């Protein structure tokens, strides 16, 4: 089983067609928010490195992840520059906050929950790149090729986060993972007020 198949089985639901349709209609917003997501992913990894300085495995994996996310950020900025898309402030999706509001406030539970959420976000990113790629192959082959190139890295990030979460826990994390996956499904399948890379199904096709 390749990592994409693993992720598709891990996630509680596929990306709805309504999100894919909105993404195809709002490619500039997709690129801008994607850039923001890559920058936030790098920031999250760095924050974990500063907070958990005694976890050598976490330090090594998050250092690599942060570098890769910043490279992806630069690549998206390059694509935007080529297309005349301006990188600007954008209100965040409710997605990450909707997951993080469930994080427990004591250790090691706080770290475990944070890492599980990281795994789910990376898995969903990978699944969305794969979901939209076939629709772009004819109309926007350059973007389709770029999204395909991200699948391996995003899949590895998902695996790293999930392993770190299990290693940090005092017991099996399956039940906690299922809890967050159920929360993720509700965020992905429900209506959303605006389109973002990690939004639910937007009520309208513009931001």
Proportion of helical residues: over 70%
Query: Which CATH class?
Result: Mainly Alpha
Low-confidence stretches: none
CATH topology category name: Ferritin
Our count of helices gives 8
Mean pLDDT: 95
Computed Rg: 17 Å
- Output the strand order for the largest sheet: 1-2
What's the name of the CATH homologous superfamily? Ferritin, core subunit, four-helix bundle
| Architecture (CATH level 2) name | Up-down Bundle
Overall number of strands: 2
Beta strand %: under 5%
Protein name: tRNA-(Ms[2]io[6]A)-hydroxylase
Organism: Motiliproteus coralliicola
GO biological process, one term: tRNA modification
GO molecular function: tRNA 2-(methylsulfanyl)-N(6)-isopentenyladenosine(37) hydroxylase activity
Short summary:
This protein has 207 residues and is mostly helical. The protein is 72% helix and 2% strand.
């Amino acid at each position: 089983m390749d990592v994409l198949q693993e992720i598709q089985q891990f996630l509680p639901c596929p990306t709805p067609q309504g999100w894919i349709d909105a993404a195809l209609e709002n490619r500039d917003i997709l690129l801008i928010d994607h850039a923001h997501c890559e920058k936030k992913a790098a920031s999250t990894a760095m924050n974990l490195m500063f907070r958990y300085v005694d976890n050598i495995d976490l330090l090594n994996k998050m250092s690599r992840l942060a570098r890769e996310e910043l490279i992806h950020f630069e690549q998206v900025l390059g694509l935007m520059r080529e297309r005349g898309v301006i990188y600007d402030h954008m209100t965040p999706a409710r997605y990450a906050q909707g997951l993080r509001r469930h994080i427990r406030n004591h250790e090691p539970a706080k770290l475990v929950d944070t890492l599980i959420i990281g795994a789910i976000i990376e898995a969903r990113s990978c699944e969305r790149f794969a979901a939209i790629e076939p629709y772009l192959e004819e109309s926007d082959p350059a973007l389709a090729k770029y999204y395909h190139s991200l699948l391996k890295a995003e899949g590895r990030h998902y695996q790293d986060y999930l392993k770190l979460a299990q290693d940090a826990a005092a017991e099996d994390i399956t039940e906690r993972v299922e809890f967050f996956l159920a929360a993720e499904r509700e965020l992905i399948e429900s209506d959303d007020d605006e389109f973002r890379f990690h939004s639910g199904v937007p009520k309208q096709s513009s931001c």
